[in-house]
Amino acid sequence: MNRPNARSAALLLLRLIEAKETKKSSSVSRFRVSDITLRRLWNRYRIEGAFVTEVSEVLLDAGWALFFTGRHYAMIKTDMVEGWVRLSSKGISEELVQVRAGAYDFKDLERLIPSPAVDGDEDAD
Fold first, then answer.
1. CA dihedral 12, 40, 28, 76 (to 10 degrees)
2. Which residues lie below 8 Å from residue 68, measured CB to CB, with a gap of 6+?
């Protein structure tokens, strides 16, 4: 079974984008792609993280970023993020001093990551 290397896999993905743009008659700047589509495209039974990293490096040269979102893979043109709001650690610099000193209480931040619902616990309080 012939499996494309990272560069060839990136080229196939770019060709898929090209086909989508041709079908839509417009440019695509972002999209999601399923694991099964990548497995079919790259002729692989499973997608290894190291291989995705290699493909991502090639895609960056073409102006695209590829990343896993937890359910899907996503791609975005790298020049699209230039206008996005920027995060800077200066916004929490006092808290970072506490982190470095080992004195920060991370329990206060647990509210930022919701607990997953457990089957049968919907009515439990």
1. -90
2. 49, 52, 74
